[in-house]
Amino acid sequence: MTLDPKLLEILACPEDKGPLLWFPDEDALYNPRLRRCYAVRNGIPVMLVDEATLVDDAEHERLTGRANAEGIRPTFGD
Q: What does CATH list as the number for 5-70?
């Protein structure tokens, strides 16, 4: 599922208001600062802190490594 590029330009973590990493093939938006992953269901980002998944060290390394290797940029501010 793809998200509208205009939406990605403004999409922020609801807790720290910072940018996110978008992984379209995983339907996930990831905040590496808080290690919190937000699901995207049916093309709609579920930006609720209570529904976010906390990510362990291994998953954090995988996601940040993948972002670096594939050139995945933050949703804004970079």
A: 2.20.25.10
